[in-house]
Write a structure and sequence with these properties.
Layout (H helix, E strand, L loop, with lengths): L2 E9 L3 E7 L5 E8 L11 E2 L1 H16 L5 E10 L5 E4 L9 E2 L7 H9 L3 H8 L8 H12 L9 E4 L1 H10 L3 E3 H5 L4 E2 L4 E2 L1 H7 L8 E3 L19 E6 H8 L8 E5 L3 E6 L11 E6 L7 E8 L3 H10 L4 H7 L8 E3 L17 E3 L7 H25 L6 E5 L6 H11 L2 E5 L4 H13 L5 H6 L4 E4 L9 H18 L26
Parallel strand pairs: 1-5, 5-13, 9-12, 14-20, 20-21
Antiparallel strand pairs: 1-2, 2-3, 4-7, 6-8, 10-11, 14-15, 15-17, 16-17, 18-19, 21-22
Helix pairs in contact: 8-13, 9-10, 9-11, 11-12
Length: about 500
């Protein structure tokens, strides 16, 4: 008997994961393949584009290797966002590397555009600050390198990872609405490419993909063994996919993904008040409906902080977590390796470690690295409280979420219940859900009723530190952040009265 299944590809920063999901929402098979990245210069982080495709093919083959009687009725995609590349429209050959979302080579371009006064216009139209993480300045850099006179618009394709994957799957040049909103080239009010933003960043519309709905059928797969003829029906950015898998369309649901970086996201309304600490973005777009808008905060270094320190100490990230002391003994690590993201948005911030003494041990450093993740998420939850969007329960996922002590500390310092997903590949599952929705397998009500397993942690469950220790930790953290920043922190940032990370007039895009 043939099994009908959804196949979901989750193409991430360091690997590609694939799930096969049945109609009951159960994972029937998995595939995985690594993805390397290169750093040709300090601050430059990129992938070889064909490595992305090979990683996806390998993971798909592994997931499908378990049986011949499989009927893949639809394919979904979740992907690392903001990464960008150029390829030749006629041959499909890469014209550039894939610039990672982590890449900072465009810092000087951002500074030039800010000096010209474009920061507020970019934020007001796109919902995003002028920061190297977002795709628009990557587009400027790539086009300056490959088409400085902007005469090759009909010959080149510019696209994010979902665009690149779909091109290889179906031959179509498209980008999903949520991914498009992360480029800083889309006007949130219209959901279309903004002529004003295209002019600011020097991007001809001819190189850009067509914006499509998240559950739209964008084409039929050609040339992929065992997937030929299957429709691509659901595409989401990885953070958006995780929120969708948490049934994030329900009021008050907010999620935090603990990965290389961290993303905190919750839906909002079109008329919500502005926040310089947070991004506004399209979470997803369903056919015939207005875009689902979200608040999002992007933390640039979370798991990568722990990996960096583990390498420095010649150990593994898992072993580092095991040996971490119960307290950092006053040591604070601000992981501004590539500046600070939300809620500070300070690209010039510098990584630093404070509070070091002759008694400091590697165990104290390990605790400071782990606490930096908790404290950055708490900064974001503080910013969400300013716009009346702080959740009572924070739904969490990602590789670091399996660390029970870390989640316990998050619950304690942020005074929220934490619900840890027991599904490790939540972004892939969200893509499967969106593909199934598009293929007519499920309605939103069906998806909401699917089983979801969580381990819950309440603030009272944490006995890691007494409450007054958190007060001191917050004070030490905010002082260290102020020292790390390239611009002065506002006087209103203080603990315990730290409810306003930004004064009302401060431009977070500086």
């Amino acid at each position: 008997m043939t099994d009908s299944l959804i196949l979901a590809i989750d193409q991430g920063t360091s690997s590609t994961k694939v799930l096969l999901v049945d109609r009951q929402g159960q994972v029937r098979a998995r595939g995985w393949a690594p993805l390397s990245q290169q750093a040709p210069q300090p601050g430059w982080i990129e992938h070889r584009p064909l490595d992305v495709i090979e990683s996806a093919r390998t993971a798909v083959d592994e997931a499908l290797s378990g049986g011949d009687d499989l009927d893949v009725v639809a394919v979904g995609i979740s992907n690392q966002r903001e990464s960008l590349m150029l390829w030749d429209r006629s041959t499909g050959a890469p014209v550039s590397p894939l610039l990672s979302w982590q890449d900072r080579r465009t810092t000087s371009l951002c500074e030039e555009l800010l000096a010209k006064g474009h920061g507020q216009k970019v934020r007001s139209l796109s919902g995003l600050p002028l920061d190297p993480m977002f795709s628009a300045v990557k587009a400027t850099w790539l086009l300056d390198a490959c088409d400085p006179d902007r005469v090759r618009g009909e010959e080149l394709c510019l696209g994010t990872v979902d665009s690149w994957l779909v091109w290889h799957l179906t031959g179509d040049h498209v980008i999903e609405a949520g991914n498009a909103s992360r480029t800083a080239l889309v006007d949130l009010a219209t959901g279309e490419w903004s002529p004003t933003l295209l002019e600011i960043f020097g991007v001809p519309e001819a190189v850009l993909p067509r914006i499509v709905d998240s559950s739209e059928c964008v084409g039929v797969i050609r040339g992929w063994k065992d997937l030929d003829g299957a429709p691509v029906h659901g595409i989401l950015g990885d953070s958006h996919a995780a929120l969708f898998a948490h049934a994030g369309w329900r009021p008050g649901v907010a999620k935090a993904t603990y990965g290389t970086g961290s993303s905190v996201m919750t839906l909002t309304t079109e008329d919500s008040s502005d926040s310089p600490a947070l991004c506004r973005t399209v979470a997803w777009q369903l056919p015939g409906q207005a875009p689902a808008l979200a608040w999002e905060a992007n933390i640039l270094s979370a798991g990568s902080t722990v990996s960096w320190l583990a390498e420095m100490l010649a150990t593994s990230a898992s072993d580092l977590a095991e040996v971490a002391a119960s307290s950092s003994a006053g040591v604070v690590l601000v992981p501004a390796f590539n500046g600070l993201g939300a809620p500070w948005w300070d690209g010039g911030a510098t990584a630093l470690i404070t509070g070091v003494s002759l008694g400091t041990t590697s165990a104290h450093l390990a605790r400071a690295a782990l606490d930096s993740v908790v404290l950055q998420v708490d900064d974001v939850l503080t910013a969400l409280a300013q716009v009346d969007a702080k959740p009572q329960t924070l739904f969490v996922d990602g590789g670091m979420a399996i660390n029970q002590e870390l989640m316990s500390r998050q619950a304690a310092v942020s005074d929220v219940d934490v619900a840890v997903s027991m599904t490790p590949e939540l972004s892939a599952l969200g893509a499967a859900h969106m593909a199934g929705l598009g293929a007519g397998w499920w309605t939103l009500a069906d998806l909401e009723s699917l089983p979801r397993e969580y381990t819950k942690v309440a603030p009272a469950d944490s006995c890691v530190d007494p409450p007054d220790a958190w007060v001191q930790l917050r004070e030490d953290w905010l002082r260290a952040v102020a020292r790390a920043r390239s611009v002065p922190s506002p006087a209103s940032v203080a603990f315990p009265d730290h409810e306003r990370p930004f004064t009302s007039g401060e431009d977070a895009s500086r």
